[in-house]
TrEMBL record:
Source organism of this protein record: Streptomyces californicus
This protein's encoding gene: pfkB
Start and end residues of each Carbohydrate kinase PfkB domain: 15-289
Record-given protein name: 1-phosphofructokinase
GO function term, MF aspect, one: 1-phosphofructokinase activity
EC number: 2.7.1.56
C-alpha cells in the first residue's frame, strides 16, 4: 500500500481551447474536472495500476466534498482531515499545440490544530504503508519545516518516505534523510543554487542533495528523460513520446510508477519513465492505466550521458 500526503489538494478543471485570446469570450472544445494535488495524483496513478492507496488530505467546503467523492469513485480510500477553509480550485487552459496556461489558487490557511491533525492522520495509517509519498506545496499556515517534521515522525515509525516538494520545504527536509526526493530540473537547480545546462550538471546537483541527506534522488529532466542517483550508482532513462497532450500530473505519475516498482534501482526508474511518458499523452491530468504503458520503449542505461545538453536548461 502506498500512502500519499497532500497538504494542499485541489480540484483541477481543464479546458481545451481552439486558441487563447485575452479579453475574448472563449468556448471550450472539451472540459473535465479531476481531483488534484501532487499526492492525490500519485494515489490516482497507483490506483490505476491496480495497487492499494490511501490519500491523506485536508478537505473543506463543497469543493472538499467533491474531491473526496471523485477519489472514492476511483476506488481510492480518503483519509480526509476536515478544515475550516475551502479546498482550492485550479484551472488549466490547453491550446491545440499543447501550450498550457495554469491558474493555481492559494488554498485555505491551516491552523496549528489542523496541521497537527494531518500529521496524526499520517501516523494512524503509516503502519500499513510500504511507502509514504509526501507531495506538493505547503498551504498557508504550515511552516517550511512541516515536511521535515513529517519525515522525522515517519522514520521513527519505520516508514519509508518519498518527498516531492521544492524550495525551503525541500531544503529543510533534507537533513531528516528522506528515502527518495523527486525534483524536476528547475527545482533541482533552485536547491543547489546554480544553473543546470547538461545531464552532467543535473547528476552533480543530485549527488549534492544526497550529500545533504537525501538517500536517493529521482530527477525529472522533462523531455530529456529521468535520472536516478542512489547508493548503487546513477542511471539514466528516456522514452519516446509521439504527441504531448498535457504534462499536468506527469511527474506524479512517474513517482507512482517508481514506488509501485519498489522505489529503488533501474527497474523502478524504467517504470517511472514509462508512466511519465504515458501520462503526457493523456488529456488533462488523467493518470495512465497499464494499457497506456509501453515499457518496451524505455531506453535505460547506467552510462549517464554527462555532456548531453538539456532541451530546457534550468537557468
Amino acid at each position: 500500500m502506498i500512502l500519499t500526503v497532500t497538504p494542499n489538494p485541489s480540484l483541477d478543471r481543464t479546458y481545451e481551447l481552439p486558441g487563447l485570446t485575452r479579453g475574448a469570450v472563449l468556448r471550450a472544445a472539451a472540459d473535465r474536472v479531476d481531483p488534484g494535488g501532487k499526492g492525490v495524483n500519485v494515489s490516482r496513478a497507483v490506483a490505476a495500476a491496480g495497487h492499494r492507496t490511501v490519500a491523506v488530505a485536508p478537505t473543506g467546503g463543497p469543493e472538499g466534498a467533491l474531491l473526496t467523492r471523485l477519489l472514492g469513485d476511483l476506488g481510492i480510500e480518503v483519509a480526509g482531515v476536515p478544515v475550516a477553509g475551502n479546498t482550492r480550485v485550479n484551472v488549466t487552459l490547453v491550446e491545440p499545440d499543447g501550450t498550457l496556461t495554469k491558474v493555481n489558487a492559494a488554498g485555505p490557511e491551516l491552523s496549528p490544530t489542523e496541521a497537527e491533525d494531518v500529521l496524526e492522520a499520517v501516523r494512524a495509517h503509516a503502519p500499513a504503508a510500504d511507502w509514504i509519498a509526501c507531495c506538493g506545496s505547503l498551504p498557508r499556515g504550515l511552516p517550511p519545516r512541516w515536511y521535515a517534521e513529517l519525515v522525522e515522525r515517519s522514520h521513527r515509525a519505520g516508514a519509508r518516505i518519498a518527498l516531492d516538494t521544492s524550495g525551503a520545504a525541500l531544503i529543510a527536509a533534507l537533513e531528516q534523510g528522506p528515502d527518495v526526493v523527486k525534483p524536476n530540473v528547475q527545482e533541482l537547480a533552485e536547491a543547489v543554487g546554480r544553473p543546470l545546462s547538461t545531464v552532467g550538471d543535473a547528476l552533480k546537483a543530485a549527488e549534492e542533495l544526497r550529500g545533504r541527506g537525501a538517500q536517493s534522488v529521482l530527477a525529472s529532466l522533462g523531455a530529456d528523460g529521468q535520472l536516478l542517483v542512489e547508493a548503487s550508482g546513477a542511471y539514466f532513462a528516456t522514452a519516446p513520446v509521439a504527441v504531448v497532450r498535457s504534462n499536468v500530473g506527469a511527474g506524479d505519475a512517474s513517482l507512482a510508477g517508481f514506488l509501485a516498482a519498489g522505489g529503488r534501482g533501474p527497474k523502478a526508474l524504467a517504470s517511472a519513465v514509462a508512466h511519465g511518458a504515458a501520462a503526457v499523452q493523456l488529456a488533462g491530468s488523467l493518470m495512465p492505466a497499464p494499457a497506456d504503458l509501453d515499457p518496451a520503449s524505455v531506453v535505460l542505461s547506467g552510462d549517464v550521458p554527462l555532456d548531453r545538453a538539456l532541451t530546457e536548461p534550468a537557468l
